[in-house]
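I'd like us to work through together how a protein chain folds, taking it slowly. To get us started, please write out a protein record for me. Go ahead whenever you are ready, and we will take it from there:
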Amino acid sequence: MKGLSIGTIIGLVIGVIILIVLTPLLFKAASNVWDQLAETLGIVKYSPIERAMICYYYLCKGGCGDPNFHDFCSPDKIGRDNYEEVCSLPEALGIKDKICTDAAFQFPLKVTLDSDEDLSKDRLKKKIDTTHILIMTESSASGISWYDVIKKIIIGGFAPVYMLYDAIKGITETYTFLTIHDSYLTDVNREEYKVSTTTYTNLVKYSKVRKGTYYVSGNVGGWPNTKYFIFTDDFVRYLNFTNGKSYSDIIVSSGQIIRISIEDEKTSTGDLKDYNYLMSVYVGADSYGNINNIEIKFWNISNANNPDIKSCSDIHSCGQFRQFLFNTKNGIIHGKIERIDYDIFCSTDYCKVWNERVVLNLTYFNSAYFRP
């Protein structure tokens, strides 16, 4: 090392660390090309539940325009109805880029299993290109690996380089958490998995998913690294109305979009765009917790660019704003604000209000029966 400056040495160290981090990604890209060919030739086969999880990952990563989604999740592979659900309907309603953020869980992929089907982490890793993949159930847990913490301490003089390596990994690494209930699984092979100083226990490495109907949806977030959350349920999370049906205590966070499917308005063609609506809520508050702005929007394909809006804009009127009506094609949505919740943090100098949310009751009436 004689003759090399400290700056040069640091540069070389950083270069080596970056090479170590990026090399697996290059091999992963080459592997994906082979995997695509293997699937085309029928060498690698994915179960319907695995395909739905992978497809929703691609939806959250790049949307329906993602080339991987196009190749792996075409209508002939996931079904025309599913393709309309996650691609055509969100686009028609003007939220095609929000189905894993503001409108998360509102547009699920439906999977019906006629028999028990495979769920394999090793197969999922061939298609999901995040650094880490974890299949979690309610039995899974996580905690700090104190062995790794101590190891960092006793490394001593190399600690700065070790910490720099961890910092770069922390920024470049990505995660996919696949969440499914234990009751859906059988023949489960569990595993333990370590990420930095965190050890995840009782994860699923391989299992069978019991026959039945499931709904797969997703959410994306996280900073500084991206985290994808793919959920599997045996029920839909959007609101499903028939005449006189009510939902109570619906918690809608400020900025969140919820879907309202009115089965009574379904046409003979069954086109999703005919009977599905969206509602969004915005709540504003001052630093004392006074609500000074509420806005509730309601729209479908016919007025996606000009939604029906109910709002108030001052503390006094917001305090009285409790009930509202929205017209649908053949009926009325009657809404009532039960309460407005928020979290507040106060220091000696100021208070900050955040996580504003509205608790709603909603009822649908066919106009022929509705009496205000």
